[in-house]
Design brief:
This protein has 15 helices and no strands. It has helices at 6-15, 17-26, 42-46, 59-73, 88-99, 105-119, 125-143, 154-171, 174-199, 205-218, 221-246, 250-261, 263-293, 297-306, 309-330. Helix 12 crosses helix 13. The longest helix has 31 residues, at 263-293.
Length: 331
């Protein structure tokens, strides 16, 4: 059976319930190299999508699209504290990502001190650095917690979330906690509620549907819109998987997609299909050459001919993912 498009599979996986539970436990979108050992390798994450579908941003672009851009959007009706704005956590993660991996928290904090002015206005730099240092300590402490063995067990997840919340309380006051984690906490509560409802065998189908609808109604309008978009992405992923399994041609795919999502979305999906096909063809060529001739100068030259420097960073992980998928299909 053909594997579903990696691009749409990413959207589905990120938005799946069990994956949301994993994100809860990780406590953030990126590892810091400071003891957060639960984060999957970057190569494994990158392998899930074709290179053409990934948007790369430079550190300067990340800065402009994070804190400074949000500060420009704040009006006189905005938050009283100019540091604790929406997206603060993303800015801290961008700062930590630019600092890179470090052998110990002290070294990482030294790098943060040299970079903080690139991510925060000068008037906020001192406070921002102090907050970033505590964020490092928080991530180190988070890495010492044990992840629940069963991410589909509501009780285990609830206990894990409570343990993580206690760690956060050690490092951040209420206002800081809200700025950093309030958005995520709402989704945590919602996803856990759905998991508990779905695992409750005492509910009739009608009661389960009513309880799920009640959980949906508890979401804010913004979160509800995000969930609606998530559902569409998951449906698109399943549809693409079905197309791939049946070897549907471009005309069939376009007709179905344009009827469901509109012509612009159908054209974008068709472009992703072409990128997916081209990526797989190059991986096939490289994999076959490696099987014939093994590692050597010739293979390295082919690698450079077939893939861009950014794509070359994903090849090994992509081939490993192929092997994993092949083993799963054969079992």
């Amino acid at each position: 059976m053909a594997q579903p498009s990696r691009t749409w599979a990413v959207a589905a996986a990120v938005l799946a319930l069990t994956t949301a539970a994993v994100v809860w436990w990780l406590g953030g979108p990126a590892g810091l190299g400071t003891g957060d050992t639960h984060q999957p390798p970057a190569g494994a994450r990158a392998a899930a999508a074709p290179a053409g579908a990934l948007v790369q941003t430079s550190p300067a672009q990340s800065v402009d699209n994070s804190f400074f851009a949000r500060r420009r959007a704040i009006t006189t009706d905005g938050p009283a504290d100019p540091l604790l704005v929406h997206g603060l956590r993303d800015t801290l993660e961008a700062l930590l990502m630019e600092a890179g991996d470090a052998s110990d928290p002290a070294t990482l904090k030294q790098r943060l001190a040299a970079l903080v002015n690139q991510h925060f206005p000068a008037a906020l730099a001192t406070r921002a650095l102090a907050l970033a240092e505590r964020y490092v300590d928080y991530r180190v402490a988070l890495g010492s917690l044990r992840a629940p063995q069963d991410l589909t067990d509501p009780r285990a997840l609830r206990d894990a979330l409570e343990a993580r919340h206690k760690v956060r309380q050690q490092f951040f006051d209420d206002a800081e906690h809200d700025a950093l984690f309030a958005r995520e906490a709402e989704l945590d509560r919602y996803t856990l509620a759905r998991l508990e409802i779905e695992r409750n065998t005492l509910l009739s189908p009608e009661q389960r549907a009513q309880a799920l609808q009640a959980a949906d109604n508890e979401l804010s309008t913004e979160r509800r819109a995000e969930r609606s978009a998530a559902t569409e992405h998951m449906a698109a992923a399943a549809q693409t998987a079905a197309f791939n399994a049946s070897n549907a041609d471009e005309r069939t795919r376009y007709a179905a997609r344009s009827a469901q999502y509109g012509s612009a979305a159908a054209q974008a999906m068709a472009q992703l299909d072409r990128e997916e096909q081209h990526w797989n063809q190059r991986l096939d060529q490289y994999s076959q050459a490696r099987a014939r001739q093994g590692e050597g100068p010739g293979l390295q030259q082919l690698r450079q001919q077939l893939f861009s420097p950014e794509e070359q960073q994903r090849i090994d992980a992509a081939l490993a993912l192929r092997q994993l998928n092949a083993g799963t299909s054969g079992s």
